[in-house]
Amino acid sequence: MKKLGMLFMSVFAVTVVLAACNSDAASDDSVKTDAKKEQTESKQATAVKKEVKQMQDELATVEKNITAKNDADLKASAAAMHKHWLAFENNVRDLYPIQYTDVEKFETPIFYMSKRDKLDYAELATNAAGLKTSLDAVGNAKETKAKTSEVLDKAVDNYSKYVVEQTGAFVADTKIFTDAVKTGDMAKAKEYYSKSRVYYERIEPIAESFGDLDPKIDARVNDVEDGADWTGFHRIEKAMWADNTLTGMDKYADQLRTDSLALQKEVGKLKLEPKPMVAGAMELLNEAATTKITGEEEAYSHTDLVDLAANVEGSKVVYQAIIPALNANDKNLTQQIDDAFVKMEDTLAKYNTDGNYVSYEKLTPEQIREISNQLSHLSELMAQTGKIF
User: Which regions form coiled coils (predicted)?
Assistant: First the structure.
């Protein structure tokens, strides 16, 4: 404020006093507003914790039915728990985004597995145990107030751990696959062909970043100029489904084993950044929508839906990792992506019976178009998350 001279000193003094009073009043109002906001947030948190407690009770019922191996009661209790989770999950996502991801990781599989005709109670029990731990974490969580840069660093750390975990599982199941190929066990080789590839497809953008490892592991015959250089999964796929023999596949099995271990070594040295991480997830969905949906990926086994589902799962992990940062920038987009993933999962679930996806050849053109459109929509939504960087 300017000093206006002696003539106005008395007026100035009065003004200062009034301003001070108003400032104090404003300060008091600000404190009251902040206190009110904290109280509101506390009420929101209290409400969420109450819902979590109810869900823990519902989970206890689910676990009881898993132990009893009661199909009908399990299906009903899992459906009831899922319906309740959908009713309040957005509040968990907003207040506790990191813990939200862990709940989703275990709750969603329980729901979809419970809908199958043949139930895998061991897998259900494993997911139930994970969900129990995750709900406990939500019950003890504090609201996330970190800066965007901090939560993105956390997102990268979480995703890096996921990639390491998936790569380890890939190496383990690939060894079972290659051992079966070398011993001539066709049934086991076919079983672990898909099982091992699930882990690879979930982290495919990462695998593609290591020079020629991806072509050596995952090239299709049309991807190589000289058929003599063709190695990896799809070379053995052709032998199993088209040629109906494993004769001569030992060298390809040995090479695949070597390449899988090389991939694991490279992953161990990996340094990720948030933006390329999200770009990889977007690219994975886009590739699935445009090329994999054509049936070219699994030309002999026709297990394309296994790959597509794994691509969706891997991309969802990236999305869930960045939820804390996305919440702070565009909650509406978060909800759109949530809805799109649920719709995609529901669509794929229609073609899964007892944990096995139908052959790609059984899909109608309309069904293929539906899957492709949903994958493209997801990719477009993921592209919009670039605003957080």
Answer: 45-72
